[in-house]
Amino acid sequence: MPDIILSNVQKSYGGSGPKAVSDLNLHIGDGEFMCLLGPSGCGKTTTLRMIAGLEHLTGGDIRIGEQVIDSPAQGKFVGPEKRGMGLVFQSYALWPHLTIERNTDFGLRLRKVPRAEREERVAKVMKALDIEKYRDRYPSQLSGGQQQRVALARMLAVNPQVLLLDEPLSNLDARLRLEMRAELKRIHAEFHTTIVFVTHDQWEAMTLATSIGVMNEGTLQQLGRPHDIYDRPANRFVAEFVGSPPINIIEMGGGHALDRAAQDWLRPRLGDAGQVGSVGLRPEALMLASSEGAVPQGSFAHMAEVTGILPTGGSWIIELKVEGRVIFLTTTACPTLTGGETVWLYARPTALHVFDKDGQRMGAADEALSRAEGGVQVVRKA
C-alpha cells in the first residue's frame, strides 16, 4: 500500500475550546508499525478514527499515496469501507451469537468471497493465531486473550492493507498483554501489514513500534524510533512521559542545593546556563560512589542520603534524598547499601538532558556536553 500522509490535519468538535487535533503532520510508510502514544485525551484515538474514516476532518487533508481520501477544502471524502483498512476496537466487538469461525469469516462473507477462497483464508489466519481449535466455540467461552486473537483474525482474513488498533491490549492482564505483544510483532513480520497502534502504555510502544509518535493536547510532540524517543526526547513532556521510574528533573533558578549545584556545574560547560530551564537525569544513567574521590572527574555529582531500596526482580530502584528532594536511581547489580547511608550520586556529562525555559531540548547543550564527555577521567580509589 502507498504511504499514508496526514498534512496539517485539524479536528474540533465545535465551541471555542482547544482542538482535539491541531496541525498534525504525519507520514506512515508502507509496512511500518507506528504507535501513537500519549495520555488520555491527547488526540491519538481521534487521529486513528480520522485515518479509518470514522471521523471527518475539520481542516487539512489525508492522502494514501497521491489519492486524497479526506479534505474539507477540496470537498473530498472516501468512505471507510473503500479505504482498505481494518480497525480493531478496544472492546473487540465480536458477535456473541456467532461461532469463532463465523466471526472470523464475517468480513469475507460481506464481501461475497467465494466459499473455497474464504475457507482457505480463514484456516490460514486461524492457524497463524492459534485459534483453530476454538472454531466451534462462542466468544463467551474464550478468555480475553483468545477473544483478542479472534478480533485480529477477523481483520487479517480480509487482508487489509492497513491494520488500525485502538488500545486493543488494555483489557488484558499483564501476562496476556506480554503474549499478545509478541503475537503482534510476529503478525507484523509475517503479513507485512502497515499497522497503526494507539496506546497510552509506553512499554507497548517501545517494544512494538518501528516508529513512535508522542502526542499531547492534540499536537505531535515528537516522531522517531523508540530509542530516539527515549534517549533524545525533543522536550520535557516526552522526557517525563516515557520512562519508568520517571526521569529525575532538576529545576534551574531554584534555591535548592541540587538546583544550585547543577547551575554551577553547567555554567563553565555551556557558557550561558541562564537559558536553561531544567535538566533531566534518567534513573539508570545515575551512578553511586562511596566518596567524592571515587567520582569520575568532570561528572555532575552531589552528596545524597539513601532512603529506600526497592527490589523489582531483575533490578533495584534506589531512593535517594538531597535535602528533602527525592531522586531515583536504578541498577541491575544487587546493592549493598543500607537506609540512612550517605553516598555520592553522579552522572557523566552526556547523561544530562538539558531543556530551555519553554521545555524544549537544547541542541547546543548536547554538543557542548559531548565535548565535555571527552574530558571525563575516572579516578579510582587507592
From TrEMBL:
Question: Entry's Pfam families?
Answer: ABC_tran, TOBE_2
Outline the extent of the ABC transporter domain. Answer: 4-242
Please give the SMART domains that the UniProt record associates with this protein.
AAA (SM00382)
Arranged from A to Z, the UniProt key words for this protein are:
ATP-binding, Nucleotide-binding, Transport
Top-level taxon of origin: Bacteria
Name the InterPro entries on file.
AAA+_ATPase, ABC_transporter-like_ATP-bd, ABC_transporter-like_CS, ABC_transpr_MalK/UgpC-like, Mo/tungstate-bd_C_term_dom, NA-bd_OB-fold, P-loop_NTPase, Transp-assoc_OB_typ2
Q: In the UniProt record, does the keyword Mitochondrion occur?
A: no
The answer on whether this UniProt entry bears the keyword Nucleotide-binding reads yes
Molecular-function annotations in GO = ATP binding
Q: Gene3D superfamilies, alphabetically?
A: 2.40.50.100, Nucleic acid-binding proteins, P-loop containing nucleotide triphosphate hydrolases
Say which family it is in. Answer: Belongs to the ABC transporter superfamily.
Please state what the protein is called.
Answer: ABC transporter ATP-binding protein
